[in-house]
UniProtKB/TrEMBL annotation:
InterPro entries: MTH1187/YkoF-like, Thiamine_BP, UPF0045_domain. Pfam families: Thiamine_BP. This is Uncharacterized protein YqgV (UPF0045/DUF77 family). Belongs to the UPF0045 family. It comes from the Bacteria.
Length: 98
């Protein structure tokens, strides 16, 4: 693993219910990728290979559009170490959830 990404998808829709529906679709897609992930209240973190994660980020936008969102924005945070050594999700958050 040489990267982790945190993505917050922001659908441009009218209601909170629509936001939840679209974000749930994006999270379901992330779950289906097989990458280790962590869903937080404001973003989802994913870890894996940098190039593959960039495809996931791109596809999150397509999933939101397909789910009925006419326009979408995202905040994306990337931690990348080409030779590996990026801190894992587990090392970052597990101690705070026991």
């Amino acid at each position: 693993m040489n990267a982790n990404v945190a993505i917050q998808v922001l659908p441009h829709v009218s209601t909170d219910e629509e936001v939840i529906k679209i974000v749930d679709e994006v999270i379901n897609y992330i779950k289906s990728t097989g990458f280790t992930y962590y869903v937080g209240p404001c973003e989802t973190a994913i870890e894996g290979d940098y190039e593959e994660l960039m495809e996931v980020v791109k596809n999150c936008h397509y999933i939101a559009i397909k789910a009925g969102c006419p326009k979408v924005a995202s905040y994306v945070k990337i931690s990348f170490a080409p030779e590996g050594g990026v801190l894992t999700i587990d090392k970052k958050v597990t101690k705070h959830h026991k």
